[in-house]
């Protein structure tokens, strides 16, 4: 039976662990394999976990409101997926200096364009063929559970690094991989990044300029802690996760009594179960909202069956909604862009200045221009 124990303050728990690290060899040895930069966060998180466990020693499941999916809204996101892949391919060609685009001055401008792809005249409007290819993608084994909100579509350095090295290549959006397969455009990621290398050259000239460095205050002397962290990075020590509750349990079993361990184990299971329960409850509530009967997808695990059934239902409705969204998009925007592309490009290049006031964009642009000045070159983007 779980008994409620006296609840120490969070700072008391933190100080207890710090004292153990100083005086008890097992404690220092437990932390030693991990990167020291993650120790403090782990100790803070463990203290919060323990305090929460002792405060609520039994399992509570929060009410969860089911998510309502709007298929028509998501169909417009799909149109943005299509256009963002085309914009990314355009960025590859721009970086390789195969093309020029009016108003596009630096590579960061493609990140600014990302949310505006449906009205961007630099790329042709979504065609019926492209829309049908996306439907084929939804029906294929390439299609995965992801949303455009999770993807930085114009993150060229990350995408190309994953493609060239093969490391985390699966993290390239599955739609990108499918599009490349159908339209044979994978080679674009292998084009030289001439423009990006020039930008880096000028930025480095600015940041390493002796005259600029002379105006900066001297860096503080390295502390023993910083030296230790640097050494840990050189040794490639792993990060000690503060999110994996199993780490808390592995750590706690070295010094907590049996009664406290029972509470901590119960609380860890409760938190992990609650996260799983909320997701499954969302799927279950979604299933209940489906009108009529809908067949379950067979799977070895009932949870996987529930997840795949909901995903199949959503995909079927995305496929139904997409042609309607495409026709509406063409009537409102696409046909106009196609008929007036040259004029719209001229106007867009002028109006794009308003979007280029982004603070990060200004920082990147200023570094490039300042680097050109350091090297005795004109302060413009004509390079």
Q: Which short descriptors sum up this protein?
A:
mainly alpha; 16 helices; 383 residues; flat; 61% helix
Order of helices and strands: HHHHHHHHHHHHHHHH
Total number of strands:
0
* Class computed from helices, strands and strand pairing: mainly alpha
Note the overall shape.
flat
Helix proportion range: 55-70%
Distance between the termini: 73 Å
In total, the number of domains comes to 2
Strand content: under 5%
Count of alpha and pi helical runs: 16
Main beta-sheet annotation: none
* Mean pLDDT figure: 85
**From the alpha-carbon coordinates, what is the Rg to the nearest angstrom?**
27 Å
Uncertain regions: pLDDT < 50 for 5+ in a row?
Answer: 58-69
What features would you describe in this structure?
Helices cover 61% and strands 0% of the residues. The chain is mostly helical and 383 residues long. It folds into 2 domains: 1-57 and 247-289, no CATH class; 71-208 and 301-374, no CATH class. It has helices at 10-23, 25-31, 39-55, 71-95, 109-113, 128-139, 156-165, 174-183, 194-207, 210-214, 224-234, 245-252, 258-289, 302-339, 341-351, 359-374. It starts with 9 loop residues before the first helix and ends in a 9-residue tail after the last helix.
Topology readout:
Elements: H1 10-23, H2 25-31, H3 39-55, H4 71-95, H5 109-113, H6 128-139, H7 156-165, H8 174-183, H9 194-207, H10 210-214, H11 224-234, H12 245-252, H13 258-289, H14 302-339, H15 341-351, H16 359-374
Helix pairs in contact: 1-2, 1-3, 3-13, 4-14, 6-14, 9-16, 12-13, 13-14
